Amino acid sequence: MSATTRPSAAASPCPHKQFAAIVAAHGRDLHRYAHRLAGDRHTAEDLVQESLLRAWRSLGQLHNAPAAKAWLYTIVRRENARRFARPHPQQSETPPEKIAERRPSYDTSTEAFMLRRALRALPAEYREPLVLQILHGHSQQEIAVRLGLNAATVGTRLFRARQRLREVLGERV
Fold it and tell me: How many CB atoms lie within 10 A of CB 134?
């Protein structure tokens, strides 16, 4: 029987046995590969576990049993990429009661008032990248990705925003 006429994994008499055989044959290699991708044993174990679950759910898509190792490696690689696409909130070391204490006071100086007023006067297309860079610390490339623009456009908008602020505030900016 050739590779093109081989029945699919789902069509085999016992997919449980077939899957167990695939995992037994390639499990150790998958763990090593996941460890290289993840960098630590615990994350690699989670990665392999999630990948094997995905593989089991899509076992019917495996039409060529000799290609199982490459198929599993692809699933592990994609599962690893998903780790970075998911948000990973980090727990703060600061207790909730202390958050209000650490909050800086509102600047009521004339300079701060003039700066806030000048920022509000900027067109949104200039103000948004400037605020992302100055207040939130994003790089030009991060701003481009976040706003769906190219980096050159973001650079131009940042330059023009600073120019307009200089016109309003003088050389203090």
Answer: 13
Helix intervals (H) in the chain: 15-38, 41-57, 68-85, 96-102, 110-121, 124-134, 140-147, 151-169
CATH architecture of 15-85: Orthogonal Bundle (1.10)
Angstrom distance (rounded) from CA 32 to CA 52: 14
pTM: 0.45
Q: What is the CATH number of domain 107-169?
A: 1.10.10.10
- pLDDT at position 99 is 66
Closest C-alpha to 166, from 129, 115, 130, 131 = 115
pLDDT computed for residue 103 by the predictor: 57
Domain residue spans of the chain:
15-85, 107-169
The pLDDT assigned to 104 comes to 63
- Asked whether residue 9 carries a pLDDT value surpassing 50, the answer given is no
Query: Residue 111 CA to chain centroid, in angstroms?
Result: 38
